[in-house]
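Quick one:
INPUT:
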């Protein structure tokens, strides 16, 4: 039976057998999701892995008390508690494939996995034991569900392994792998959804561990912004917060120069004032203040006191106003107005700069991410900011070719045109042919300033490989993935404040600390769009000058009422994912999840899906 999820390759029904690929003494499936496993087998064979024998290597010096284990352990315990009726082993490994910790639902499955050395200290790197639910995750960078004979080594043929990467939410680097192992007869596609959701929960815990220092930096920024009218920058590890004035005055390279020097000064003095040259044109006089948490220096606050020559900025003191005294835009220079996502928000600032740089260089770009993270806002905002009178031509499944061509022709050779493709995962083969023809036509037009793609959240590797749109991927120079809001909770205070000021016309921008805590604990399945809806309800319920917990909707102020506990949240996410994959077809979704339709209907009602 073939499963359509990423990297899944179950034993294949002989009545629907795809082409075989010979790999030494192993047979691999090619085509669809099986090609994912076939690629792993080729790597295994190239590494010299034997499919019949060989010991699994033991490494004595693994860190079984690491930060990863500390934050993964509660999730492992919850998974074991929730799946106690299924013989299942749950293990976490480091980023080299070495097992760090394992829990079992019962002793029988524990004895079985002991026999294959799935225990702390043993290496499950793909280059040592072949295709498996740990090493193959590290090699591919995505989650996998390897069942039965899809394992390269014969000793694993009795087992089903579902693995997912655990990434550092800030850097994106893989910190380790979460793996669920059971016998083939107990395998279910639901395990694949569970392991991905559980890995996401561990990532959230890793993020919150870092957020203590980040909140100290945000608090420092909020206090400085409230009492100072000069441009302010606060920076620390993985955090850069700027006032709108600082964003308008300094580009990304200039901000980096200021921050690097300010951090150097903060290591040497609590407070100092110094003048530095940030470019051939500009010299900045800045005041730096060290920011500490306990005995550690975690960042620096920068007040821009003066910036010369060119009259770009002239600030006399903290009570003065910003003066753009001598720089005037050229006649054909577009007015640069910072978009909402560019103001004071570290991750948005980083992604906005990347999008803008691609647009300015006229490079093709793919932006992916969950619904509501702001993909369209970032790319459309950058296009309109860089080009005057630009015409953005939208293309999505079901588009009318003649209507698109008419719009392009109407622009003629005068107005710039930006082609924006939405939902490429839904385009059919015939539409891809038309789009390729449009590319060829527009390639000769001087007024084409770029081509962008707004894609949904990266789905399963096997599915992606079969998408018609993938034939066009080599034409795109860059791809950018915008993380969901639940991985950017440190930005919520500032982001919510910006939204509130916009929505209330400046009347409300303050949020109680208790509200910030509730925001950080909430999963934000609707991302920025849901945040805006929540803030709208808060403004409707508002009874004071600040947003308080009492103003929040119930699902945010009391998240336990909508999903009581980690595993319930994981189950809800698995159901939502399956319904999306099945385009809302509940019968197919129940089959994919391995549960009865009546059970699915009850859970949909229970979780308010």
């Amino acid at each position: 039976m073939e499963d359509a999820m990423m990297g899944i390759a179950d034993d294949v029904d002989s009545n629907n057998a795809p082409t075989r690929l010979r790999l030494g003494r192993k047979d691999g499936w090619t085509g669809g999701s099986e090609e994912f496993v076939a690629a792993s087998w080729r790597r295994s064979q190239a590494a010299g892995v034997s499919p019949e024998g060989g010991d699994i290597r033991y490494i004595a010096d693994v860190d079984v008390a690491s930060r990863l284990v500390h934050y993964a352990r509660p999730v492992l315990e919850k998974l074991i508690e929730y799946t106690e009726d299924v013989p299942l082993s749950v293990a976490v490994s480091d980023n080299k494939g070495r097992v760090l910790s394992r829990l079992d639902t019962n002793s029988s499955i524990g004895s079985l996995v002991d026999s294959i050395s799935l225990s702390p200290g043993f290496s499950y790197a793909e280059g040592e034991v072949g295709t498996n639910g740990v090493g193959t995750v590290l090699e591919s960078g995505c989650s996998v569900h390897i069942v039965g004979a899809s394992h390269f080594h014969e000793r694993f043929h009795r087992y089903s392994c579902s693995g997912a990467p655990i990434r550092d939410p800030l850097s994106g680097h893989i910190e380790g792998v979460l793996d669920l192992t059971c016998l083939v007869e107990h395998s279910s596609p639901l395990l694949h959804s569970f392991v991905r959701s559980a890995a996401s929960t561990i990532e959230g815990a890793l993020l919150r561990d870092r957020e203590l220092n980040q909140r100290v930096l945000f608090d420092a920024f909020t206090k400085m912004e409230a009492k100072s009218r000069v441009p302010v920058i606060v920076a620390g590890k993985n955090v850069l917060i700027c006032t709108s004035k600082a964003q308008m005055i300094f580009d990304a390279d200039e901000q980096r120069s200021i921050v690097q020097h300010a951090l150097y000064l903060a290591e040497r003095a609590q407070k100092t004032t110094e003048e530095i040259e940030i470019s051939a044109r500009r010299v900045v006089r800045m005041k730096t203040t060290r920011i500490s948490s306990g005995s550690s220096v975690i960042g620096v606050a920068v007040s821009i006191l003066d910036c010369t020559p060119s009259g770009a900025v002239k600030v006399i003191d903290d009570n003065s106003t910003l003066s753009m005294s001598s720089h005037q835009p050229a006649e054909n220079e577009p007015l640069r107005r910072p978009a909402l996502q560019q103001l004071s928000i570290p991750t948005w600032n980083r992604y906005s700069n990347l999008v803008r740089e691609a647009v300015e260089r006229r490079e093709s770009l793919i932006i992916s991410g969950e619904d509501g993270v702001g993909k369209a806002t970032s790319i459309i905002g950058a296009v309109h900011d860089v080009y005057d009178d630009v015409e953005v031509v939208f293309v999505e499944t079901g588009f009318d070719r003649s209507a698109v061509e008419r719009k392009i022709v109407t622009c003629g050779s005068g107005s710039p045109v930006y082609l924006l493709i939405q939902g490429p995962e839904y385009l059919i083969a015939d539409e891809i042919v038309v789009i390729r023809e449009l590319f060829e036509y527009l390639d000769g037009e001087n007024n084409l300033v770029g081509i962008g793609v707004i894609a949904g959240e990266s789905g399963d590797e096997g599915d992606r490989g079969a998408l018609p749109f993938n034939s066009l991927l080599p034409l795109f120079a860059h791809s950018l993935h915008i993380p969901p809001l639940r991985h950017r909770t440190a930005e919520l205070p500032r982001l919510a404040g910006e939204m509130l000021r916009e929505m209330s016309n400046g009347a409300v921008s303050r949020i109680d600390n208790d509200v910030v805590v509730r925001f950080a604990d909430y999963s934000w399945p609707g991302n920025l769009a849901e945040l805006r809806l929540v803030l709208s309800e808060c403004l409707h319920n508002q009874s004071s000058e600040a947003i308080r917990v009492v103003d929040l909707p119930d699902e945010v102020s009391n998240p336990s009422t909508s999903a009581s506990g980690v595993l319930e949240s994981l189950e809800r996410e698995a159901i939502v994912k399956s319904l999306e994959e099945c385009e809302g077809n509940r019968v197919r979704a129940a089959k994919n999840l391995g549960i009865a339709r009546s059970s699915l209907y009850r859970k949909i009602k229970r979780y308010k899906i």
